Amino acid sequence: MNSSNPRRLVDEILRRNARNPALAWRLFKHLLSSPSAPAPSPSSIFSLSRALAHARLLPELDHLHHLLLNLPPSAAPRCLTALSLASSMAGILDHALSQLHSLRAHFPSHAPPIRLYNSLLGWSLKANRSDLVEALYKDMLLARVSPDTYTFNLLMSSLCDSGRLDEARLLFDRMTVKSCQPNEFSFGILIRGYCKAGFSLRAVELLDVMERVGCLPNLVIYNTLISGFCREGRIGEAKSLVERMRKEGLFPNVVTFNARISALCKTGKVLEAYRIFRDMQNDELGLPRPNQITFNLILDGFCNGGMVDEARALVESMKESGFFAQLENYNIWLSGLVKNGRLLEARMLLEDMVRKGLKPNLYSYNIVIDGLCKEGMIFGAESVISLMRNNGISSDTVTYSTLLHGYCTQGKAYGASKILHEMVSNGCFPNSFTCNILLQSLWKEGRISEAEILLQKMNEKGYGLDIVSCNIVIDGLCENGKLDKAMEIVEGMWQHGSAALGELGNAFLVLVDDVNDSKKCLPDLITYSTLISGLCNAGRLDEAKKKFVEMTGKNIAPDSVIYDTFIHAFCKHGKMSSAFKVLRDMEKKGCKPSTRTYNLLIWGLGSKQQFNEIQNVTNEMQEKGIPLDVITYNNLIRSLCDGEMARKAASLLEEMSKNGIMPNITSFSLLIKAFSKSSDFDAAQAIFHGALTTCGQKEVLYSLMCNEFSMNGKLLEAKELLQIAFERGFSIERFPYKHLVDELCKEQRVDDAQSLLNSMINKGYLFDPAAFMPVIDALGKKGNKHEADKLSEQMMDMATYHDKSKFLTSHTQHSEMKPRRIKSKQDTSLESDWRNLLLRDDGSGIAMKVLKRVQKGWGQGSIPSPWPQNIDPFDVWESTG
DNA sequence: TTAGGGTTAG
């Protein structure tokens, strides 16, 4: 160590202990406290503070800041600069800013280097702190520091990220006339901006500009453009770019290949992507080797294409070759499992990750939470949230929005508003996704004026109304029969973008006319799909066809969903030849018919009893390799049953099992109904038992069979099934217990009827008190006044209990249901039964007694409004400021 | 230390 120069000594010690910042810091303090200590060099301060910042030793950084302020004025500014730069580079934005602030306050004539400003600008932009960006930019000008190319590049990149392409372009154009010339990064950033916004054609024009200014495009720029074209499906353009780059001596690398593979997977051409992937693995072909990302793309492709087994095999091979170790691999696999309904496995994988010490991140949890919510398993989702909280990760806006969506789709309004409040009180603010979820929920509930208030709030808070919001409103209008309004808005969107919603009556929306064309939200495939489906449902087929022509004229390519919509509509109206014309047209246009397409056709033919044609269609499916599914078979079963060929229909069950297709509850139900209709109860019962074996002991199967027996006078058999239902704890809502009690009484079997009632009471069921009446009547007629009174009392108890638990129909029923549905279903049935009771005049007086209870309880608006009265679904925005 | 390919919600 050279100790002849004390300043070198300081530097040396600091350098040697750079890896132990705490020790370096102590040594530094010690040396600096010596009276003969020389001033440290800026580079040593940079190394020290970089180490302190990296180790997040924040109090030490503050202390250092303080010490540096006391250095002689010849050394202090440069050392402070070094400190601030190191803090800034480590991303400790607030420290770096306060250090810059002291520098500027104490040494106003010292101009900080542009590099410091650039670094601070970069972090401020990343943190979305436009206030800081502005302040820094002003301070730069005050310090007479000129922005350089790097500064402009940062600003452009940020503008592009927030979709402000035109402003980014303006900045870019100003660069060419200013002292700072655009470099390859400037071009790269702008090109990326155009490509990300879907304007690859505008991006590629910049290649010519580059040529003019003598700036050579590099591999990154070519890859940006190629992936942009691939994303837009412009494969021809992508290919010619590859040729152009080869001519310039640049060769496609793994990124280029990944862009192609990604595009193929996104358009469902997984097998083609897989072929390329295999070629990349083949040493002889000299292609770039697949990397981590290539594997992820193929894995995701398999998962999205429903090829779970292939995906699983790939995961195994990735594990073997060490390509399955990063969190991202796990997250892709998690999302694949969820998308393919393997929720249990996904949940287990998540816990496995925790056990293995591979910390799942917010993405991992959100993926599983979303899957559970989509399957209606909100409790499961809530439990994953606790798991996540226990592992130190807090919910974000995505988590809350996902949960909100779960509650909304199940009509659980109270849960939804609870989530909204929880999210805001935890500092997560609703974004446009959240708003769209709410918007859809409100429209679905028919609460249009509230939806309009929400649109207004979204607008005030600056959440742009995007194409999703527009599509939600258009869907809502179609569902509510306001098709003309919907069409008017779509037309207006071509001119004014989302501002066309203003025609809904919201004058304020006129103010948000999308100013720049690049951001305007124009009708898309979903818009037309929604509109066309609305028109078809309303029987306005000619207008639907016109809209179809309009969309293709606007270069929106129809997908199989739209074709299916037309096929469905034609089938519904019995226009089978038109339906087949659509099928041929879609094939001609290169849109592959799906199993669903054929199922619709079979359904249409089935309702016209055209069995030969059905046969032709199923043959065609087999020839074209389009798999039949359970719905296909159910359609076949339905049409045969309708044609009173139940036996032939039943034989299809065998064919299904031969083809590896499991019949479902619908398959069996159709057959049970058909055999019951023809009074072939032995066959019906055989199917019923087969169904129980295949589908499990399902309540719907029991209730169906019980209803069939009961309707056809098979009272004993029906009663037996009802008894089983009691034992199994099923909800009896769908069982014909009232009818059965009534019929038993009519057949003078009051004892059987009474025993049924007693079983229901003993099992704790809460049921329609009207079921008591036939028995009370019968007992009264028989002169058994004592028993009749006893039952009357029990009926009164049931009525009281009914008052207390407004919605419960049985002890097994799950709590929350869609409030509106409950109202229409339950109230009307109870009310009508009670009205019938009250109209009776048998002098028993019971009816009047009961009436009083009815007036106190049921039918009196005891149904809670979908949103709890005391909570305004919109007030959460007020606290967001 | 600013530009390319992979993971979450409507």
Automatic annotation (TrEMBL):
Residues that span the membrane, as ranges: none
Organism: Cocos nucifera (Coconut palm)
Region feature Disordered, mapped onto this chain: 809-828
Basic and acidic residues: bias regions: 813-828
Pfam families: PPR, PPR_1, PPR_2
PANTHER family named in the record: MITOCHONDRIAL GROUP I INTRON SPLICING FACTOR CCM1, PENTATRICOPEPTIDE REPEAT-CONTAINING PROTEIN
InterPro entries in the record: PPR_rpt, TPR-like_helical_dom_sf
Keyword terms: Repeat
Name of the protein: Pentatricopeptide repeat-containing protein
Domain of life: Eukaryota
Spans of repeat PPR: 148-182, 183-217, 218-252, 253-287, 291-325, 326-360, 361-395, 396-430, 431-465, 466-500, 524-558, 559-593, 594-628, 629-663, 733-767
Cited Gene3D superfamilies: Tetratricopeptide repeat domain
Tagged with keyword Isomerase: no
